[in-house]
Design goal:
It is a single chain. With 56 residues, the protein is of the alpha+beta class. Helix content is 18%, strand content 21%. The strands form two sheets. The protein has a two-stranded antiparallel ribbon with strand order 1-4. A two-stranded antiparallel sheet has the order 2-3. The protein starts with a strand and ends with a strand.
Length: 56
């Protein structure tokens, strides 16, 4: 199950830097996760300072 990024995102980029498969990119006001590339490892959730990424 892929992760999604909630509206709590502060667009700091920590999640994108922590993603081992580069499935996260900057979106409009917040970062977004490409569900087709996400391997559900949780690295993004572990690096996010506001706990924005969560399992879908």
């Amino acid at each position: 199950m892929a992760y999604i990024i909630s509206d709590e995102c502060i667009a700091c980029g920590a999640c994108a830097e922590g993603c081992p498969v580069n499935a996260i990119s900057e979106g409009d006001g917040k970062y977004v996760i490409n569900a087709d590339e996400c391997i559900s490892c949780g690295a993004c959730a572990d690096t996010c300072p506001v706990s924005a990424p969560a399992e879908e």
